[in-house]
Design goal:
single chain; about 350 residues; Enolase-like, domain 1; 7-stranded parallel beta sheet; 3-stranded antiparallel beta sheet; 12 strands
């Protein structure tokens, strides 16, 4: 496969409502679409959107790299093999979000050329993917109203942000949610590393009565999370503490942490995630694929990854609806809290030049 053209286009899209976590407020997503064209006239596109405060690289670093280095890929013939594509991209750049975009674009290009590529290189995919709703910080009455609205739209798994200045406010919120919705919903919590280990032990003991599916990042570092996983009645999930795919693999193989929330845009690519899903399955661990507020273009690759897991836990893929006036039709809309997977939409047919 020979790349005849490669180009990028910047984008900036506002969220309908600023999303607040204990780490800060997300009000817009900026990034780049990277499009590629081969010698046969096929085209494909990938998304590169580093997430401030979470990604290693900044928007400015990515822009500089794309401006100065991107066209060097045109001198390479790209082999139609996932491992070779991963190797080519890894040698070309260490910027995680750029790796995501290039792997998505190149894999999409290969899938255009070979309709059997996905079936021959990846194991069987499921068609229906469960999705959780994400509830950010707000007043309790507003949170209850948001959950009810999402519940009426078919959602049954809710990830609720905790980590307020006073834990008593978190506790009371969770109590109110469980009281109102009883066991009709599955509750996940996400503290974004807000607590120290002593506070986390105490807080989790108090919250354990509410049947929490898991809590993400109750404290700030991996060693703390590993200790909590040994004793907490609430299962621990690791998210921000996963810095690289090597880090994910270490957690899979050496800790009792059962849930690993993987954001491929931040961790650096798609092909490594496929391998980690296989490893997690073998170890009876659970990979949850989660969005870093990608547009529908980046999200399409995440849906592909979520289709590869065998468990039925919900994934964090309900973000495309959070954007204001996106000039993109989501090929994977959430309907009744589910996404129907179609491998044809791994790399949607969009012209990057018309999306900024």
């Amino acid at each position: 496969m020979i790349l005849k053209e490669i180009k990028y286009s910047p984008f900036s899209y506002k969220l309908k409502n600023p999303f607040q976590t204990s780490s800060g407020i997300i009000s817009e997503r900026k990034g780049f679409f990277v499009s590629v064209h081969d010698e046969l006239g096929n085209d494909s596109i990938g998304e590169c959107s580093p997430l401030p405060r979470f990604s290693y690289e900044s928007y400015i670093e990515v822009e500089k790299f794309l401006s100065n280095e991107l066209k060097q890929l045109l001198v390479n013939e790209i082999e139609s093999d996932p491992g070779k594509i991963k190797q080519t991209v890894a040698q070309f750049t260490k910027l995680q979000s750029v790796r995501f975009a290039l792997e998505q674009a190149m894999l999409g290009l290969v899938m255009r050329r070979d309709k059997n590529f996905s079936k021959n290189n990846f194991y069987a995919s499921k068609k229906t993917i469960s999705v959780n709703a994400v509830i950010g910080f707000d007043e309790p009455e507003n949170i209850l109203a948001k959950i009810e609205e999402k519940y009426n739209a078919g959602y049954r798994t809710f990830k609720i942000k905790v980590g307020r200045e006073n834990f008593s406010d978190d506790y009371e919120l969770v109590r109110l949610v469980r009281e109102k919705f009883s066991n009709r919903i599955t509750i996940r919590l996400d503290a974004n590393g807000k607590w120290d280990i002593d506070s986390a032990v105490d807080n989790l003991a108090k919250l354990s009565q509410f049947e929490i599916e898991y809590i993400e990042e109750p404290c700030k570092n991996l060693s703390c999370l590993m200790k909590l996983a040994e004793h907490s009645k609430i299962p621990i999930a690791v998210d921000e503490s996963l810095k690289t795919y090597e880090n994910v693999e270490e957690v899979l193989k050496t800790t009792s942490i059962k849930f690993l929330v993987v954001k491929p845009m931040i961790l650096g690519g798609i092909i490594n995630a496929v391998q980690l899903i296989k490893e997690a399955e073998a170890l009876c661990k659970r990979i949850i694929i989660s969005s870093a507020f990608e547009t529908p273009i980046g999200k399409s690759a995440l849906v592909f990854l979520a289709s590869l897991v065998s468990h039925n836990h919900a994934h964090g893929l309900d973000t495309a609806s959070m954007f204001f006036n996106l000039p993109i039709t989501d090929p994977y809309p959430v309907q009744n809290s589910h996404i129907i997977f179609d491998p044809e939409n791994f790399s949607p047919h969009f012209d990057a030049g018309h999306l900024s």
